[in-house]
Amino acid sequence: MEMDSLPNGNSAATNPSSALPNPAAAAAPPSSKLNQLAESLKLEHQFLRVPFEHYKKTIRANHRVVEKEMSAVVSGLAEAADRDGLSRDDAVNHLTSLVSRLQGLKRKLEEGSRVENLQAQRCRARLDHLESADAENLSEWNNVRVKRILVDYMLRMSYYDTAVKLAESSNIHDLVDIDVFQEAKKVIEALQNKEVAPALAWCADNKSRLKKSKSKFEFQLRLQEFIELVRAENNLRAITYARKYLAPWGSTHMKELQRVFVTLAYKSTTECSTYKVLFEPKQWDYLVDQFKQEFCKLYGMTLEPLLNIYLQAGLSALKTSYCYEDDCTKEDPLSQENFRKLALSLPFSKQHHSKLVCYITKELMDTENPPQVLPNGYVYSSKALEEMAKKNNGKITCPRTGFVCNYKDLVKAYIS
Predict the structure, then answer these.
(1) In this predicted model, what pLDDT tens digit does every residue of 4-26 receive, in sequence order?
(2) Residue 203: exposed, middle, or buried by beta-carbon count in 10 A (0-12, 13-18, 19+)?
(3) Which value, to the nearest 10 degrees, does the dihedral of the CA atoms of residues 196, 202, 208, 209 take?
């Protein structure tokens, strides 16, 4: 075995010269930590993408406001120039109204600029956070990441107040997406109250992006509004509504439109399962779920909460057929029903050979660090037991049972 593969504490025994202090080697962080850090940073796509998308959306909104207001002002000036016989007072009043409109635009631009600067600072703060990650502060950096993942989960599950408190107490407000989810909160609460107006306004604000992704969310909202008119037996209003808002979707969603239009004849009291389901309250729950998916796509978020993704990544490495047997140890996370449910769709871990891990040091037991058996039957690594014997005058104490024996009473186990 090469020297680099040995633990730091054992290299001097094989090569005495390595016991001499080496400042360069001491300053160099362990390669395993650097590899771990590099792999961690690969998973931070959402961390940077969300504030950037929010920043771009604000810029687009401010640009639309400028175009709209400037177009109205220019049209007003052209109209005034074309009008013959405009009195002096009328001209002054007309120009004064245009100046007031420009002043209003200035205030909007100042507010928009302030919001843009805040969002740009947030992007900068996240870049600085990623750049600050190194092997020296990996534990602290990972601790912040766990808090970020928990805040993300709380926001997705609508625990907004708890998420805000955790972010404030941990001083990570710029590293989480509370402002973005506050936007979604208004739409979700409205849909839960069976109101579609905020959701339709959201669709209008993001029309080009939703069209590009071929989203059906606005269409589903329009269908639900039509169904509510039929439920209230406002058939004439329902027909007028369908002509105005649903007819444009006919070329791409004719079958769905035909199915919904039939409800005019069946009404909300129908027992026909094909149409009865359209009047059930769960349709509103479906709209909430669909909005959450569209919202995540728009900002480049994962559809699953980050907490689920990280847990599934760990569970996929632990999942074996033994986890589902009755005698599965309680120390195995997959012995718990909630973890089993989370890992249900995951493949079994491809472990062709068993691995023995020392209970004391959590290190792998192999030919270089073989297992040793105590008289009471418990097994630990040679490295752990040797260190224990040196500290206790050759005595070994089993950490799980308290059994005490001499180091010479141990029996070496062989891995086949």
Answers:
(1) 333 333 333 333 333 333 434 44
(2) buried
(3) -110
> Is 190 in the same domain as 279?
yes
326 and 401 in a single domain? The answer is: no
Q: Percent of the chain, pLDDT > 90?
A: 41
Distance CA 54, CA 50 (A): 6
Domain co-membership, 337 together with 362: no
| Residue 115 CB coordination number (10 Å) | 17
Taking only the tens place, the pLDDT of each residue in 238-285 is: 999 999 999 999 888 999 999 999 998 888 888 888 889 999 999 999
What is the rounded CA–CA span in Å between residue 306 and residue 155?
11
* 310 shares a domain with 255: no
Q: Are 288 and 192 in contact (CB under 8 A)?
A: yes
* Residue-range definition of the domain harbouring residue 329: 306-342
Helix and strand totals (H; E) in the chain: 19, 7
Residues 198, 286: one domain?
A: yes
Check whether residue 310 and residue 295 sit in a common domain. no
pLDDT in tens, 70-125: 888 888 888 877 776 677 787 788 888 888 888 988 998 899 889 899 889 989 99
Q: Total domain count for the chain?
A: 4
Query: What pLDDT, on a 0 to 100 scale, did the predictor assign at position 219?
Result: 95
**Closest to 125 (Cα-Cα) out of 157, 167, 159, 166:** 167
Cα–Cα distance between 319 and 312 in angstroms, integer? 10
Question: Torsion-angle region of residue 7: left (phi > 0), alpha (psi -120 to 50) or beta?
Answer: beta
CB atoms within 10 A of CB 341: 9
Pairing state of beta strands 411-412 and 371-373?
antiparallel
Residue 5 domain flag: no
pLDDT reported for residue 131? 84
Q: Supply the pLDDT for residue 124.
A: 92
Residue 210, in any domain of the structure? yes
Q: Are residues 282 and 313 in the same domain?
A: no
If asked whether residues 331 and 263 sit together in one domain, one would say no
pTM exceeds 0.85, yes or no: no
User: Would 397 be classed as within a structural domain?
Assistant: yes
